[in-house]
Amino acid sequence: MCKQNEAFAWTDEEGGQFKEEFFPPVKIAVQEHVPWVLKNIPIPPGIMDEVCKQLKEKMDAGILEPSSSLTLVLRP
User: Fold this and answer.
1) CA separation (Å) from 15 to 3, 11, 20, 42, 75?
2) pTM value?
3) Residue 33 is part of which domain span?
4) Is residue 2, in this structure, part of any structural domain at all?
């Protein structure tokens, strides 16, 4: 591992994505349905600022992307 240290992503900004020519995107077949409703887990007010900061960092690094749904979308 010491010889290949540059190959590792030690921070979110250093991370990337696999090349599509080697790893094509996976298509997941889904059926139309009426989604069930799940309540969101509330974020305690004492850690709200830290949670927002971490989410913004993940979005800036491209790990998370905005979504119109009630859940976050994780990028591979």
Assistant:
1) 19, 7, 16, 29, 11
2) 0.48
3) 8-74
4) no
